[in-house]
Amino acid sequence: MAGALAGIKVLDLSRVLAGPWAGQLLADLGAEVLKVERPGAGDDTRQWAPPSLADGTAAYFLCANRGKRSVTVDITKPEGQEIVRALARDADVVIENYKVGGLKKYGLDYDSLSQLNPRLVYCSITGFGQDGPYAELPGYDYIVQGMSGLMSITGPADGEPHKVGVAVTDLFTGIYASNAILAAIIARQSSGKGQYIDMALFDCALASLANINMNWLIGQQVPPRLGNAHANIVPYQVFACADGHFILACGNDKQFRAVCQVIGLPALADDERFASNPLRVKHRDSVVPLLAEAFMGNTREQWLKRLDEAGVPCGPINTVDEAFRDPQIRHRGMEIHMQDSVGQNVPLVGCPIKLSGTPVEYNQAPPKLGEHTDDVLRALGYDAATIATLREQGTV
To answer: Which of 15, 60, 282, 320 is deepest in the core (most CB within 10 A)?
Structure first.
């Protein structure tokens, strides 16, 4: 069965995470994705190890490049530029994350390629977008987490700001980018024309603050750093217990009353300070210590069992290995295994999208550097002698 995006051809000129994440999602959904890399070096993340496969391919690279073919091309050389132009003529989508204007000098920018292929959807990903006072600055997830306000609300309330444990602004941008690409492809069905997509990590990071953004815009109070607590719901946080910690996600007044019953303090639910969520938020410093003291009286397993039976959302704080062993994750097929071109087993995290009619298929392990160069060039009409010359010149 063909994937949902079968027939869509994507030329992925991006490196590291945001762009490759978008490209991998399109590949999972059935698009044909060709990754263009530097000869001899490839995507920077191929070297971001340990850990790595036996051949040295870094786990970081593997996380974002499933389903793609790899061709090595030196785009600084005219012969390399012509190869990319030839590929773009037949492509539906180009993804790139070079600095603003970085591809113009090679004739690989949107204006140049759209003249060859007016139906081309061209997605540029940068740190700060194609215009504005920061447009020329390089974009790094860590810095953008800080600039967007995300770090100001992350970490212990009485400690220093923390970044999120993964590069979430890259990931958010990759997901926003893939949505934008799909929207442009749909728009092309009626207009017959492609378009340019300008994606910025900074924009996506700010947009992803969601309710925290609105708390500022509506309340005009600078959102504080609350550690594991929630800005708008109480109690909704981590609590310590006799043998560790667990998460309590009490989302409404009925659930709060159930919590009070479970811990043996039913009168708390009738206390005028705690009778509604807005009141509990207002009196957070009073109610949370009372709950915290009660939860110390039993183990995590016992509290989770009792809270679950009472219909109160709660959960453990798993380590990554525990998460992979969780029966729900295993049932959902979120760990997959593929074989690469040399027969190595490559463990990967599955795509979380479940489509009933056009399910995700895993047909290509993350590629070796330049694994498909000869096949791609032959399909473009290059003969063996020309390919050999290009390789001798370092063009491919």
So the answer is: 15
